[in-house]
């Protein structure tokens, strides 16, 4: 992945050097920086990640682990999703979303009417994903031992109706989060079936996590845009991009500043994935007023006020009630 193997060889050859940062060396005609393990900013050395994997995440902002979640678990999550779609269970706090192109007259109580479930922390079966030991083992590499599950989603990307509304604009997840530091937040995103370019796999801009949080808003798309689908206002369209094609059970972990999105689903099937955003319990809330996040903060507050009939809810409140401790101690969040 991005010449990581070549970089690893150079790192291992320099590990006995006294300096914490090794001077750049030339590989394939390009200058690339090489790191000592203790100089890596975005991950911890806990004997799970190889030096190669840590360098890859350091430079690219994501790490793909093949076959991390079993087919049996994926099938159980799918069954739980279908029970919700058939309205066989009521989950407190669950947000059920539909693609903007699906007219109300077309509503039927099955998965064809639902494009996403958010905040499934009160559904025991779906939330089990967030506590899978093999997931948490990797999450701890990025957050440390005290881990909060902050945001849960099951995405059911529908076949595009022709309006291109099944796209998700390029964005940074940190735009939605009023807590910091960013480097102690990570997303796990698991494919529930084969994911490829035709059905709208993730698209990432490797290395974009090294930048700052950019301004986001609704893109001006002719066919309409789904609720809460904010996009980055300004990013380099010439930045190299990578389509993450994945098999069922493959899981990608990525930094909240990584610019990413997904394309249209050009197949006749629904593309499913399950994900959770985790944060260190040592993280802290920030006031987003007067920042680029003020627009999303206001939008979330208005939705919460309508849903729960309360006037004094804050953006931070909406996250505090959703967060669940999944490992260690709830030290702050």
UniProtKB/TrEMBL annotation:
Alphabetically ordered keywords of this record: Dioxygenase, Iron, Metal-binding, Oxidoreductase, Vitamin C
Pathway of action: Lipid metabolism; fatty acid metabolism
Pfam family, one: PhyH
Enzyme Commission designation: 1.14.11.18
PANTHER family linked to this entry: PHYTANOYL-COA ALPHA-HYDROXYLASE, PHYTANOYL-COA DIOXYGENASE, PEROXISOMAL
Class of the enzyme per the UniProt entry, highest EC level: oxidoreductase
Record has Kinase as a keyword: no
InterPro entries assigned to the protein according to its UniProt record, in alphabetical order: PhyH, Phytyl_CoA_dOase-like
Name listed for the protein in its UniProt record: Phytanoyl-CoA dioxygenase, peroxisomal
